[in-house]
Amino acid sequence: MRRARERSYLWVGFMRRRSPAVQGRGRHPAVVIVVGFGATVVVGTLLLGTPLATTEGDSSHWLTALFTATSAVCVTGLVVVDTATHWSTFGEMVIVALIKVGGLGIMTLATLIMVIVSGRIGLRTRLSAQWETKSVAATDLRHVLRRVVVFSLICEATVAAVLTVRFVTGYGEPVGRAVYLGLFHAVSAFNNAGFALWPDSLMRFVTDPWICLTIALAVIVGALGYPVVFELVRTWWRPGRWSVLTRVTVGMNGLLLAGGTLAFLATEWRNPATMGPLDDSGRMLAAFFAAVMPRSGGFNTLDIGQMHSSSWLVTDALMFIGGGSAGTAGGIKVTTFGFLLFIIWSELRGEHRVNIGHRRLPSATQRQALSISLLGVILVTLSTWILLVITPHDLDQVLFEVVSAFATNGLSTGITADIPLAGHVLLSVLMFIGRIGPLTLGTALALKQRTRRYELPEEKVILG
Amino acid sequence: MRRARERSYLWVGFMRRRSPAVQGRGRHPAVVIVVGFGATVVVGTLLLGTPLATTEGDSSHWLTALFTATSAVCVTGLVVVDTATHWSTFGEMVIVALIKVGGLGIMTLATLIMVIVSGRIGLRTRLSAQWETKSVAATDLRHVLRRVVVFSLICEATVAAVLTVRFVTGYGEPVGRAVYLGLFHAVSAFNNAGFALWPDSLMRFVTDPWICLTIALAVIVGALGYPVVFELVRTWWRPGRWSVLTRVTVGMNGLLLAGGTLAFLATEWRNPATMGPLDDSGRMLAAFFAAVMPRSGGFNTLDIGQMHSSSWLVTDALMFIGGGSAGTAGGIKVTTFGFLLFIIWSELRGEHRVNIGHRRLPSATQRQALSISLLGVILVTLSTWILLVITPHDLDQVLFEVVSAFATNGLSTGITADIPLAGHVLLSVLMFIGRIGPLTLGTALALKQRTRRYELPEEKVILG
Ligand SMILES: [K+]
Ligand SMILES: [K+]
To answer: What spacing in Å lies between the alpha carbon of B297 and ligand 2's midpoint?
Structure first.
């Protein structure tokens, strides 16, 4: 029985690898993703490059337009010019549109791929057939995509409503302006983009729980990733039935949030330039917010530039780990990091197998998790070296900037605008790689891997 | 045929795992290694703690004695007091003895384990039997150990002779003193210990090729590891026959040496506090020396504290990678790093298998390589965070110090003595873990792994 099954898998794999739809016409999803994001960046750069997009009515430097467009499409949030003062309302709307397209693109693509890889909705054979007959717009697929879009719109509308009410009642903004601010920051928060319309990000709201908790919640939900959120919606009261993906994502999120909050409280409690002036509950709120944002919201309510360098290192680590798979978060993903811990633990005990819950982690997934992380470490180290050579800044700040770009995070110690042009190009490339790299890599590998699935059934999880 | 072989392997594994010699009496090599090194550190601390060991005739602070003993046994070279002025001749001789014991311990243990793991000398069944009958001192084993001891003595004597002649002819030292200096630095260099009898390490010899190249060569040979050196001695003219271990070690060493030299030349060429005042050939020599020492000699001829922070990052990376397996070098080892590059390259191409030369890298070895590296990254990050919290220094210098301790390297930007006591304890622990951690881990896993060897014959390589 098992033998026969193995053979059939191998056979299917052999057939598919040679099918013209997959190889011959170059329709590999990885290519689609790179081209899609690249084209969106180009369109965004052209739009932001017009005089219409700036308040002064002059064209921006092409690199400013490119950097901002990349930052928006990759939902990063790093900026070389102040968003509110440099860009006109048209420019801001271009940015929010790029964020929406970028965020939705990531969520739908990643969700789609995860559905295909995990084979949960039974798409496997059907999709394979569709791919070849080009009738991709089948019911299942359409269903998934619609749910992602509807879900993101509902979340953004809710967040926008809360923010709008607060801007009107708490800060006396006119309703029209409050709605605009609410929508902009709701989209920016839910898509983990981190763009804000104040030069100091959200520092003026540091002790306002309405703004801070709403934005933090939007960032968390957006960063969990659609598959996890949807599974939680269906089965949150039965953790025993959660998939490995959901368990690891939720567990690691809780762990990193708690650890981050404690670390920031410990090192910033008496810092007069950050938490010092706040009361205790204000400090709690600020520390929690600072712990949420590296995964990977990118807003800040404390002055990052004034933080202790140990806080920067904690933020670096949290940013590098990032958020959930198939969400709008960046980084190597909490899933990957969680797997790493399990793998290292197994390795330390000399165990071959890595069990999480009642599932065995496939060895290919283990290798992917380890490779993605190490590739990230190598990429960050090389980029940091280049920036150290071409800027006068210290490792502290340069590493922070590089990790922030790689993890599409958007936090900064304040040196982004000071970096020379070559550095901006490097950061743009890092944002692009950080955004689509792991996803594409994960995709390409996950899809390729299926063609060789000649082991016992295992739970497949995408790492990108 | 193959089936039968698999079964017998499994069976042997099953038997051995329950054999009283391995489990019941706790004679696992990992335990032996930890206890052995720990005991040597304790003896060293007691000896260095006596008034006899200091020039002033007072007892040193116990932590100074412990730190120095750990640094010597783990062949690291980090110091909290100046070796020549603080310690008496007796103290210096204790240090050189600890270096010799530590270095020899590492080389023999690692070589022994590698021989057992790779099964090259056909020890497998014999040793297994010996283990149980306690007749470990068999011919093969004794032969290997004697070769290691003789080889290290020949190397040290040669280096000492060259250095002695140079100290007499070039610097007018009396013959007795020159012999003492020659022996001390020969042992320190060949064992990659990095202890020097001048407060500025070897900075006074920066343009002296006799001293610099001799020491660099000793460091390189010691860091290659005995198995590689011996294989090179036998077959250096036939690279096609080299084992995977030798190929990767030699290749990565060349790559890292060339890359490091170029990087230092690029960033320090005009630095008035380092290479600036030297002529071109002096710069070449200094850059080469600076590129050799992170792997992991620990001497310096340039003022590390005055280097550009990008040079520090390059040094961090080189130190972290370290030297060859089963040598006196530290770090994750060039073998591990080389494997990582092959693994990531395979992963990027979506390949399951990793081929190096004409051999397939076992998946267990792949996981070990990846796990050791990531465990190193996590350990370094956590330790750096702790040191950042308890010291006023920047990430640049703290990271350098932590990586230097973890990689048992001994280079420093000059903050070692300024770090508070808790920091010295942390660095001592890091040196100990860095020294025996990967080795022990590699050992434990490599030996355990053999008990489950139910795949096709593959080339086994230890990563520690
Ligand atoms: K972001
Ligand atoms: K050393």
So the answer is: 5
